[in-house]
């Protein structure tokens, strides 16, 4: 039996409750229920979501909420109707309207509010010089400036935004570090080695439990969380690793402390016998009690329910009809206020796919002529109307990343209510 057949039998045959859409719906219902408890006029109107029925299976291919992709535009991007694209930066060239040279191998990114505009930050996944850059936009979307926010680091791959407005830039090397950076360039970056020394990929902050989730890009990597002593201050705290049976794809999990977060001489992933190992941890995104993370080795999107402390599969290319998986090369992930997830491909056919709260997965965009590249750094502007991402090696496919291109896509994205501003520290 091949992997697809084995997994379909093991997961679907046991009736495991792992439907992505239901996880979203449960999280949204839980949020509404908590709001109701705080409002005497609404008490009794909604049922406790944690007492409702269980979900039913990972996301499946279906029609995109945006319709079919059209012919490629002038930038070589296939988009749905009413969407347009533009190039923001090219590696080794000046960002339009500035004197700043855009970095090579653009990777993980995020957007931050800035006055009446916003800032997009992007890592550079090159050895030794790595670091991160930023582009500042005016309210009308025009580029105001571009500049460096981190330098002299090593293979900065992904990372994550914090609720207090900083960017965590992660080194994807053995004994890699995390650096906290300030998108507006107002402060020098600071090393945050208490978050552990390992082959870091992405980070996602959970403000309810006051932890930072972390992925590890190893074929036997782990899923971690950092619990700071004081929320908003990442200088001290403890690192824990998710623990579960090796073959478990759905069910309860526990957490155990990592004895030596510095990972030398014993790697962090090898210190706790009960730790669950994942095949190439990649993107990570937290929203409404669920932390979504991806693993590239098995093309999966996982969902960690922080309230129920359980793990589920939101997507697995082995659990869709044979040869019909729209999403392969699973990599970076980002979500919207409306509950949609956007997952970028490293390889595959160079798409960003959308996974809807109804559990439908479908292509949102496709890059043509970039077959030796990967899509990196997807991030939405604060109002949700613009999507930024990069082709790390562009059409040239240069292994050094000298052909990297960063794009912006504008259009009628599905959006929910905008989140409240983050509290001051």
TrEMBL record:
Q: Where is this region: Disordered?
A: 34-67, 386-425
Q: Which InterPro entries match?
A: PhoX, WD40
Extent of Low complexity compositional bias? 390-399
Domain of life according to the entry: Bacteria
Task: State the name under which the record lists this protein.
Answer: WD40-like Beta Propeller Repeat
